[in-house]
User: Fold this.
Amino acid sequence: MARKKPKGTTGSVLFDVFYDDGSRSSNRKVPATELEGPSGDDAARTFLEDQETKIGQISGKPRARIKSVARSGKKPKAT
Assistant:
């Protein structure tokens, strides 16, 4: 009988991003490989902040600061 290959961590995880100005961006994709390791979902915030910086540079408009990040479908932690 053949063995099944272990599933890798491919794909992406969806996050909701909450900004300091009260706005929200839903269903932002973060590669699952970014979430591996001890930092977990904190790595998603770093990934999204880097992405926001690039978007701001390309558009010429500075983006609002990220207040919190939560997996889509979950409520944000109060900070």
